[in-house]
Design a protein that fits this description.
Blueprint lengths: L4 H13 L16 E5 L3 H12 L3 E5 L11 E2 L9 E2 L5 E2 L3 H9 L4 E3 L6 E6 L2 E5 L1 H12 L9 E4 L5 H10 L3 E2 L4 E6 L4 E7 L2 E7 L1 E4 L3 H4 L10 H9 L6 E7 L3 H4 L2 E7 L4 E3 L10 E7 L4 H5 L3 H13 L5 H4 E8 L18 H5 L5 E3 L11 H16 L11
Parallel strand pairs: 1-2, 1-14, 2-10, 7-16, 14-20
Antiparallel strand pairs: 3-4, 5-9, 6-9, 7-8, 11-12, 12-13, 15-18, 15-19, 16-17, 17-18
Helix pairs in contact: 2-5, 2-13
């Protein structure tokens, strides 16, 4: 059954209401294990980092040529250092795990929202100017009270992908890019991962495997026959949200000359942002954030039509945008081979079964946390799974005879 916007409003409310069990960092293991992690998104990278700190031998296999997964910053085809987020964009002040790693890696933060000029609430061709507080109040009407209060939110200076890059820098050659996994196997003694290396099938053996990729991708991997029927049902049935974003670069921020800061909320719950509002220089980007209900319409268009349609629409509200438009881009998560959707949550009924290990194979990702759709969710699930793996009672392969 398709995921509706209302379903995700409920998910957001759950994330705020749930109590987070914060586990301490694992201590160095007396029996280091060989661990293979599938996916170099936030869950896989943070798990790899913590397991390495605990003394385990970690290898991360990533299908893409870059790290971060759905924390992805777009810099091309923009000019003058302009950039925008395709995925995770803002960090609330109560997301303690995200902020812990930001501080640990000395990654600089900056405000998500400007405090000056006016935001907009728009409906068709009509528009109403409001403060940035009024903008986030509008968000709360659609998505829950946790979106209220602009000063609560920060972002990573220079792009949110600087956080996964900080993990990857510390993991070094433990991360293998361009290595999509095609098959998982296990027996009483070990687990095996088959992946492609430049198109050639390779197999690695480990004590434990951590699947830190979306279930929408995992369902295309050949899985062991030993997996429980319930786990397979959850993997195959989990729906992922459609999210699309369109980006318009202008040679001049003409909207600011008219007292507008580039942020708006539409009657269809589409957010409009100016992601680099605090960068110097004349150029700027306006972008749309289309959630389920609107994302499908954008995804169905050809790339040029997405840009032209969005330019015409935003041109009604932001004076001079059409005249100063230079180039555009779009990003639709349903089109991305190694994501196949933007986010998901297995739900309170299935979260224990979905998060439980199947023999030597473990699972992590934002879909396994009440903080689904946030970086915090990926980190939260990884924290719990790292503890599972570190405390597993089996002997490592090197100690077996």
């Amino acid at each position: 059954m398709p995921i509706t916007r209302r379903d995700f409003i409920k998910t957001g409310a759950l994330a705020v209401g749930a109590s987070l069990i914060r586990l301490p960092l694992v201590s160095a293991s007396v029996a280091p294990r060989k661990i293979i992690i599938i996916g170099a998104g936030m869950a896989g990278l943070s798990a790899g980092y913590e397991l390495t700190q605990a003394g385990h031998d970690v290898t991360i296999l990533e299908a893409r040529t870059y790290c971060g997964g759905r924390v992805h910053t777009i810099r091309e085809p923009f000019s003058d250092g302009q950039y925008a987020e395709a995925g995770a964009a803002r960090i609330p002040d109560n997301h303690d795990l995200t902020l812990k790693y930001v501080k640990l890696f000395d990654v600089p933060l900056e405000p998500m929202y400007p405090s000056k000029l006016s935001a907009l609430r728009v409906n068709g061709s009509s528009k109403q100017e409001l403060t940035i507080d009024g903008f986030t109040d509008g968000l709360s009407q659609f998505f829950g009270s946790e979106f209220r209060g602009p000063t609560r939110f920060t972002k990573i200076k220079g792009g949110n992908d600087n956080l996964p890059k900080a993990f990857a820098k510390r993991l070094g050659d433990k991360v293998h890019y361009g290595s999509p996994v095609v098959k998982l196997e296990q027996d009483a003694a070990s687990a095996r991962v088959t992946f492609l290396d430049k198109g050639t099938r390779q197999t690695m053996t480990a004590d434990r495997v951590l699947c830190a990729i979306p279930f929408s991708v995992l369902r295309n991997v050949e899985l062991p026959a030993s997996f429980s029927e319930n786990k397979l049902k959850i993997i195959k049935g989990l729906d992922y949200a459609m999210v699309s974003r369109v980006y318009l670069q202008a040679k001049k921020r003409s909207w600011e000359e008219n007292g507008l800061n580039g942020f708006a909320i539409t009657s269809d719950a589409v957010e409009i942002w100016q992601p680099t509002w605090n960068l110097p220089g004349p150029r700027g980007i306006l972008m749309t954030y289309n959630r389920p209900g609107q994302a499908e319409r954008i995804s169905s268009m050809k790339p040029d039509d997405r840009i032209n349609s969005t330019l015409k629409e935003l041109g009604q509200w932001f004076p001079g945008l059409q005249e100063n438009f230079e180039r555009g881009a779009s990003w639709c998560w349903a089109e991305q081979e190694w994501s196949r959707g933007a986010w998901a949550f297995v739900g309170p009924r299935d979260i224990v079964a979905a998060s439980s290990a199947e023999g030597r194979i473990h699972f992590a990702g934002e879909h396994l946390s009440p903080w689904a759709s946030w970086m915090q969710g990926a980190l939260d699930s990884a924290t719990r799974t790292v503890k599972q793996i570190n405390e597993a009672g089996d002997l490592p392969a090197a100690a077996r005879v």
